[in-house]
């Protein structure tokens, strides 16, 4: 069994995989996380572990775990694609995992992964297995927060759960339209650009806000909320292969 630990900006996910099958998913915070990890390791007799952290807060916990196979994902971890990013040391490990998932599940194909979370990231890998880069923009919650923080009268709003009309008839509705529909226009525009430039492109949408966005996108996409976890599992699996050891 593999244990996947994904520490994001707001929460920690613990996922247990039996080969490629996700068998359990636990969401926790840094407080009490060590005890939760120990319980999961004992329950499932975990043999291998990988951690991806955007904050590095959990790494000291993982370093104390007594497992034979531990991987802390970094820019130096061997991966099954060629990284052509100009500044690889600044590339987030979550983006590396997403690209690994795309290449593992859609080999020898062009793929664009859109991760709609705290920030929205766009990552593209071509059919030659070359990661070319992408883009980063503010996520839905960040956009709402910024309007409230940088003005004196605009309210602090939550992300709407249903479709939003393009014409807002109140300040609240106008803000919701600007944020949600603006995000939809951004994503649809990015997809159209990649499809025009690279022709056949798989579009994968993931992240905490994926379900809020997918219903309004006009493009054909694959929605997979666990794509990052699957990518981390693919990275961990890849480490046992000879080609990874030769890198």
UniProtKB/TrEMBL annotation:
Identify the gene encoding this protein. coaX
Write down the top EC class of this protein: transferase
Stated EC number for the protein is 2.7.1.33
Q: Which GO terms describe its biological process?
A: coenzyme A biosynthetic process
User: What are the UniProt keywords, alphabetically?
Assistant: ATP-binding, Coenzyme A biosynthesis, Cytoplasm, Kinase, Metal-binding, Nucleotide-binding, Potassium, Transferase
What does this protein do, in the record's words?
Answer: Catalyzes the phosphorylation of pantothenate (Pan), the first step in CoA biosynthesis.
Q: What cofactor is needed?
A: NH4(+); K(+)
**Entry annotation: catalytic residues:** 94
Provide the organism lineage as a comma list. Answer: Bacteria, Pseudomonadati, Bacteroidota, Flavobacteriia, Flavobacteriales
Q: Per its record, how is this protein called by name?
A: Type III pantothenate kinase
Give the source species. Wenyingzhuangia fucanilytica
Q: Which GO terms describe its cellular component?
A: cytoplasm
